[in-house]
Amino acid sequence: MANAPSKRLGKGIGSLLSNKHATDSLGGDGKLWVSRDEIRPNREQPRIALDKGVERLAESLRRHGMMQPILVTHRPEGGYEILAGERRWRAAELAGMKSVPVILREGTLSGDERLELALIENVQREDLDSIEKARGCSRLMTEYQLTQEEVALKLGYQRSTVANLVRLLDLPIEIQHDVSRETISAGHARALLQLRDSPLQAQAWQEIKANDVSVRGAEKLCSTLAKGERSPKHLPRTAKPAWAAELQDRLTRSLGLRAEIKLHGRGGGKLVLHFAELDDLDRLVQGINLPSEMEDLTAG
């Protein structure tokens, strides 16, 4: 059984940043710089796919440096342990950086506090997939005996969001992998949860992938199969013209950021660029000649 959660569990990164910053070895930019080799990963790190996007982030670090310091604490045996920012630390190694900027949190942290910090940073990340978020929420619930409402409160989610995430872990591991790879969406996966019969669930899963069925179509398909009826002959497909899919792929390759084109029925739409780190955003903004505005946004 896990130890009772710390009384400070839930206060988040803000409460830690209120601690005294280390002031030795300050660089000219006012940040504390330490050798990358003196830093070790957070032993409570809940993230599954830490390597996702690390090479792209490393390229950004080579060009622009590390804007966002890594949050660390002292290790009893010497050196530092990461509280938040492990992907930046890994990318720094690929980028050949010998030292990295850090914010030092004085004092000893319990395992509860280390885990919470890692979860807050990771679960709320834009590039974290639904299965990783679900596993993070589940870990808080099982190891620290928290309810869905308590987990939602700590992460700033609705309770229904946590419930829907955790339900995804009831799916077979193969379907979970497809959600992580974005072969199907979390919406498709939730539709598949209607089917408790494994052969029917597998049939619907394969049909959704083979025919590029939309989420609405997946819900209709699963509802029909759950009633013991045959699959509908015509199901709504994910609507995206070939030109939009091609342009989306070209933008992703050109910018180094995942681009998403969402079209509206009246001819308009949205272009969404997903960034994993502030360094990615900084690289994009500098590419369109807005460095001063970006510095203002990230100064805090």
Structure description:
- The chain is of the alpha/beta class and 300 residues long.
- The chain folds into 3 domains: 12-128, Alpha-Beta Complex (Conserved hypothetical protein from pyrococcus furiosus pfu- 392566-001, ParB domain); 171-226, no CATH class; 242-298, no CATH class.
- It contains 14 helices and 7 strands.
- It has helices spanning 12-17, 54-64, 86-94, 111-123, 130-143, 148-155, 159-167, 173-180, 186-192, 198-211, 215-226, 242-255, 278-287, 291-298, and strands at residues 32-35, 39-40, 70-74, 80-84, 99-105, 258-263, 269-274.
- The strands form 2 sheets. The protein has a 5-stranded mixed beta sheet. A two-stranded antiparallel sheet has the order 6-7.
- Strand 6 and strand 7 form a beta hairpin.
In short:
The protein has 14 helices and seven strands. It has 300 residues and is of the alpha/beta class. It is flat, with a radius of gyration of 22 Å.
CATH class of the largest domain: Alpha Beta
Query: Can you summarize the main beta sheet?
Result: 5 strands, mixed
Helix content: 40-55%
Poorly predicted ranges (pLDDT <50, ≥5 residues)? Answer: 1-24, 291-300
Strands of the biggest beta sheet: in what spatial order?
1-5-3-4-2
What gross morphology would you assign? flat
* Radius of gyration, in angstroms, nearest whole number: 22 Å
Number of strand segments:
7
Which class of secondary structure composition applies to the elements?
Answer: alpha/beta
